Amino acid sequence: MLRKINALLLAQGMDILLSDEFGEALVQTHHNVSTVASHTLGVAVVSLMICYLLMKLHIRTDTQRMTRAALCHDLGILGRDKKYRNNVQCCFRHPKDSVEVVRKLVVENDPALESAVVCHMWPLGPHLPKNREGIILSVADKISSCMEITGHCLGDSLIDQVIALREGKN
Question: All domains of the chain, ordered by start, with CATH?
Answer without folding.
Answer: 2-166 (1.10.3210)
